[in-house]
User: Fold these one by one.
Assistant:
Number 1:
Amino acid sequence: MTTHHATPKPTPTSTPPPAAGRAAVVTGGSRGIGRAVSLQLALDGLAVVVNYARDAAAAEKTVAAITAAGGRAVGVQADVADEHAVAALFDRAEQEYGGVDAVVNCAGRLALSPIADLDLAALDAMHRTNIRGTFVVAQQAARRLRAGGSFVGFSTSVVGTRFPAYGAYAASKAAVEALTLILARELRGRDITVNTVAPGPTATDLFLEGKTPEQIDQLAKTPPLERLGTPEDIAQVVAFLTGPAGRWVNGQVLRANGGLV
């Protein structure tokens, strides 16, 4: 009896173009993790559109740091929840660099409160940025990304750790995780990857604000590696997912958290 084995599919011939010809849109790209992502992608050879919501000065500093190192970057203001502004953001990327090969949605909003006490206006503002904003950016990415491209969303490891006071924030980021595999499947046949990074405690201004040194120390000791993450730690993960080494990772949520749940 002859045993027939499935013939392996040939390796796809569509691969990302050389980094020197690639361009990225990084929302929330002027500060914190977004700034580190912008700098890392530029270091990897991509031209970067550094999106910001309000802090033009921070965006200018990020662009200046990239260009001083020999990279290409431009700062563009847009509210990620405004579909017209986001469409204009992608228009600018295409005008400047000819197309879009990586989209990293770092823009986000955080409000901490027990569920019983949360101001619903804060809930609405957070969900507008974190859910609607992610959806709007993902929608434009799905329409505009070139073959060999990547979309990276941002969640939080609190979706797994479920710390008190993070209920509304974790709920908004759980929505991002739910979209990830669905969008990856909807982009079947286009050679575009879709993934989400879920950082753990990371030493950014957003994370450190309002916490005592004791609280920060306790959080730093929680992961088995016994330290806070750095924005650069997370940027390296994004660089992997948007680069040639990460092409077989698709539809996944990657918890970059030093060993938390």
Note: DSSP finds nine helices and seven strands in the chain.
Number 2:
Amino acid sequence: MTSTSTSTGRVALVTGGSGGIGRACAERLAADGYAVGVHYAGNRARAERLVEEITSRGGRAITVGGDVADEDAMRTAFDAVENAFGGIDVVVNTAGVMVLAPIADLDLDDLDRMHRTNIRGAFVVSRQAARRIRGGGAIVNFSTSVTRTQFPTYGAYVASKAAVEGMTLILARELRGKDITVNAVAPGPTATPLFLDGKDEQTVAGLAQAVPMERLGQPEDIAETVAFLAGPARWVNGQVVFTNGGLA
């Protein structure tokens, strides 16, 4: 593991850390010297494997579980990270659910499920983070570049992520004077199971070509932005950072 002077001794909690972008963020922060709480909702085994990988390279990490929309579960998760490492400096909230369908056809149960995880979950995690993060820390929530591109079938998902953006920008202002930054990352098309599920090869290729870089993003591309916001980016606050290879 490598570490930097800005991250040595710092502690991060990554929700949704067992796979996709969350996993890449946990790995990157651990490589930067953070002790990491790897959160999972349903895949404990995958989270435990990631912790084993981090610790085998000399890092510090634990798993914490629970529904991000359950305040008691998140309080317990925050407690566990604080007890293990002495405090929390960074919370990266990648946990999310995406169901795609035209607005006219979307099952309202799917709408409720997305809202529970994406909106209520982001609110619950941000609420705990705002109360607990130490000075000099950072909260990083997740939106999507589709709030700008407005692709069909993403209506309900974008509605939930637009809510996260609004919540994030207000929280940044509510934490005035506490030396805590609050930002959102809005990825473009990124090669994760969440993004690729249900898309045929032609659709995926078309989305890749829509990006001036002519490729899909990789989870590591997004983790690079998160690492910047988590540590050295102390003058970036109350922003939505579109990490999408130039997608309009």
Note: Residues 1-6 have pLDDT under 50 and may be disordered.
Number 3:
Amino acid sequence: MVDTLLHLVRRTTWGPTPGLLEEVAAVGPARWLEQQLDPSRIPDEACDRFLTLFPKLNRTLQQVRAQERWGDARTMQQLSYATIGRYCWSRRQLFEVMCDFWSNHLNVTNTVPAFFADRHDYDATVVRPHALGRFADMLLASSRHPAMLRYLDGGVSRKEAPNQNYGREVLELHTLGIDGGYTETDMKACARVMTGWCFRGDGTAIFDPRRHDAGAVRVAGWSAPDHDPASGPQVQADLLLFLARHPSTARSLATKLVRRFVSDDPQPDLVAQLARVYLDNDTAVAPVLRALFASPAFAASAGTKTRRPLEGLVAAVRALGAQPGRTGAGGADAIFIAARGLGHGPLLWPAPNGFPDVATAWSSAGSTMRRWNATWELTSRRKPDNLVWPENSNLATRIAGCRTWGQFLARLVATLLFRPATQPEIDALLRLCGRSSETPLSENDPWLAQRLGDLSAIVLCAPGHMER
């Protein structure tokens, strides 16, 4: 039962925390999963307190542009820190996993000054309200948000010169998929449909009928006749709803969800099953997730997915039980800087396709070394000074009741990886420490007193920690 719980928690959260497996076992995995699929009913006071450190995220688009000069990065930084903190400390863990999933699927990078005033609102009004809702609603909201209009040039696309960036990506990445059956002609026609949006002086988006191509058009089996330019937004919504409900979109999204939660090589039968659930529920996300987590393929996939660098770092914070401080960025700034150094800072992927979600994309020697160094800084040196470290991670507590080094190392691995230590893991640690399994344990052992943090870091650098 514990193995089943650990598998579920690893895949549906950013990593287990002390006590989380016991919590899931107490309510039952099915009920816990239903609670996670209804995040608004999960109290999240500690994370809410943490988020008060970032008041700039509560401002409207107009307020940001009125109060900050172009290119001011402070709002962008607060969004980055808040995002890291939510992953580390929110109790609404499946929701935060899905926010990350959709932020990558409908990616708008948080690295370019042109988006610094908009990206926080995109997160608040596009991604988060719809992360467990209907994909069709999220797609429409994304298409009209100033951040996406700037990112893919929709705000400069007009009937005299349709910009094809959004028309291409909405078909290739957001809906049908690269093998979804659309043509170059479809892409150009889609760009024509999406013309008409521009920006007010305060940075918000507005539809200008004079800029809209109101001619008859066909896109991937959908069509619209000549129409009143003022009805352009409705025609655009009709096209996006058609695309959201398209079988190719269902297959593309199901493939990405299986890749995220089950396997780097999505199983065709499971993809087809989830695509049917998606279409039968009018693009709703939660029913698809229920079917996915109930599938035999999900149950059989334990140990087959690898955490990406950001996931490994956040999972280490969660495994150690570190909590946010009450000043500055609460320690989230240091975690973010470490993640950025790993090439996996949240919301920082520059291209429209989002961060890759397969192990081979992150398996280089350089990537591994950077992850080890970041984990070592966090665990051994406890680098973020304003994180609050739990008292039960001190030496006396770690060794209490252990008579030998073998017992102690088995406990350390089990505490940090949330499952029994394997014999090869214990043997490797014993060789590192120059001890045998039966060597008596003493709190006065100078090696142990000086290097407990090093041992914890080694466990969290090992392959066992990187199992998603």
Note: The CA atoms of residues 312 and 346 lie 13 Å apart.
Number 4:
Amino acid sequence: MDIDLAYFNYAHGGLTNPTSRGENPPGGYDFTGLVRVMRERWPHVLVMGEGDLYEYFGGAGMWGAAEAMREAGGRAYIPLPCQLPREGGAFAPCIFFDAQTLIVKRFFDHRAPDFAARNRNLLKVRPVDGEEILHVVTGHGDLNEDVYRTADAKGWRWLAYDDRLSAALLDMNEHLSGPKREPTDLEDRALVEQPARFLHRMRHTAGIPDRPYRRTTSALDFLCGAWNDQEGRRTGGIGFVDMAEQAGIFTSTNLLKPSGRQGTQIDHILLSPALANRVVPGSGCIHEPVDPDNPDSDHKRLSVTVRVG
């Protein structure tokens, strides 16, 4: 079966007033942008970033999103709210899966008494007419600390074993290393603005930012390998493959900043070695905004199709 996977960091999950926390829910939700972006191709599994307060108020956010997509002609999605590590907040990703075509084998709920961090946000499904297990995992890369991003990534190493069909869909807050992935305007102070706004993302030696400035890539280096200039390829890493790199896509996944700063690929669909060999040719895509003058989020949608039997 061909299974469509998608990741879309829909800003605050459509929460209309994310700075308020006093109403029920605060300001309500607007799913217009979510529907408009997802309608282009309804996936079997959608991982939506920033499900702000989706578990609260009777699940108004997650069930409202599922309802809006269904009424727009989408699939019969069931939402599975996820968790951010280290008390990251109530705006973790949410996994939506199509119960008509996929059977759930396991979902490791962070609220269950037997919860373990090694299974955080892990969904195991199989096609209704197949037996192979697809592992889907998500998270959100720590905003401030590359050590935390790398530690979280190391928890996925078993998903890269030879017999695992695995996909990690998330905003890593980090891009791949390499000349076609790293921004080239970090030395331009007119664009970089205040040091407090960017130094937490930079590589440091003994507490001093390296020059020329380069953003940290340690988590993705562990998962996918670090770029080797001499060999012109990635070396090291545990074998995960970035969907966009495999497809030869170099456009950014976040929108350009008003200051003119370059965008980067910080959103990712990462595939285990076994699953990377199951990608349907030509299916990998970073979707441009439906309306560039009025984008539906500050991130773009990513999608890919894989074959699971």
Note: DSSP finds seven helices and 16 strands in the chain.
